[in-house]
Every structure is written in C-alpha cells, then in structure tokens.
From TrEMBL:
InterPro entries given in the database record: AGR/TXD, Thioredoxin-like_sf
SUPFAM superfamilies xrefs: Thioredoxin-like
Subcellular localization(s) per the UniProt record: Endoplasmic reticulum; Secreted
First-listed, main subcellular location of the protein, grouped into a coarse class: endoplasmic reticulum
The name this protein goes by in its record: AGR2 protein
Highest taxon, organism lineage: Eukaryota
GO cellular component annotations of the record: endoplasmic reticulum; extracellular region
Similarity annotation: Belongs to the AGR family.
Keywords, comma-separated and alphabetical: Endoplasmic reticulum, Secreted, Signal
C-alpha cells in the first residue's frame, strides 16, 4: 500500500510540474511567439514597408526562397528610430510602382545586422538596400548614388531605387 501511495504521489507531482511548466512556457513564449511563429498577416513583417507584400522572416528563409523560386532578393536594413530609415520607408511604401515591382522579389527588411559580412560590404549603416540574385550573390553592381555609402538611398533617390529594382530583375534574366 505504501508503494502505491508513493507512486500516486510521484505521478501527481509530475502532473503538477508539467502543468506549471506549461503555464510558465506560455508566459515566456507569448512575446517570442509573435516573432518566431509564422504570422498569418504579412503586416507584422512588413514593418510599414508595404503591408500587402509578402515579407520573409529571416535572412536564411529569404536566401532559401530566392534560390528555390529563382527570384532576386531585396534586403532593406533599417532602424525604427532612424529618421532616414523612416523617411525612406514612407517613400517606398507610397510609391505604387515600387510596391508593384516589389512583388517580383523575395523581400526582407531587417532592423538588426546579420552575421553575414556580405550584407555590409561597405559598413553597417541604415538605411541600406542590397540585391542578391538566386545564385546567392550580392549584387555589388547595383548601388545607390553615394560613393561613401554604396547601398544607401534617401527619399529623393526613390526613382533610382526603382530603376535598380528593374536592373536587378533584368540582370537576373540575362545572366541565369
């Protein structure tokens, strides 16, 4: 009888600790879930750069999708508290042609730096936009107009960005 009560006591403790662990887990993952779970709406990943566009979540996912869909990848590095990033985001999101053309890309906007040094060929400034073709090569030949920050764009450069997006698509077709 003593053995039976120890066994039931043990099972009860296991059940309670499992239940408690689940609750603790829930509290911890509620915030992290939003960033790791696949969101149903792309708005969360667009961060305001184009809510109707499909954005990838991570650099790795973006590379994978680019390679497998044979679409070029456009990576936008920006920061929420950077006025230049905010201004470019507004110009980008309001530019109908860019929004339309962006549908032909795998899109990723990052508010943090990746460990991939290829994404900061001339420094870690924001905003900067790089194009990567499906062979996973950073297009060093598609740059903005600033020699000291090759991949920087300002709202006034939005038409240059648009033509660079066209260039990224065209180069891809002629080279692959």
């Amino acid at each position: 009888a003593m053995e039976k009560s120890y066994t039931s006591m043990f099972l009860l403790l296991v059940a309670i600790s499992c239940a408690l662990a689940k609750d603790v887990g829930k509290k911890e993952t509620k915030e992290t879930k939003e960033t790791t779970a696949k969101p149903k709406l792309p708005q969360t990943l667009s961060r305001g750069w184009g809510d109707q566009l499909i954005w990838t979540q991570t650099y790795e996912e973006a590379l994978f999708r680019s390679k497998h869909s044979n679409k070029p990848l456009m990576i936008i590095h920006h920061l929420d508290e950077c006025p230049h990033s905010q201004a470019l985001k507004k110009a980008f999101a309001e530019h109908k042609d860019i929004q339309k053309l962006a549908e032909k890309f795998i899109l990723l906007n990052l508010v943090y730096e990746t460990t991939d040094k290829n994404l900061s060929p001339d420094g870690q400034y924001v905003p900067r936009i790089l194009f990567i073709d499906p062979s996973l090569t950073v297009r060093a030949d598609i740059t903005g107009r600033y020699s000291n920050r090759l991949y920087a764009y300002e709202p006034s450069d939005i038409s240059l960005l648009y033509s660079n997006m066209q260039k990224a698509l065209k180069l891809m077709k002629t080279e692959l």
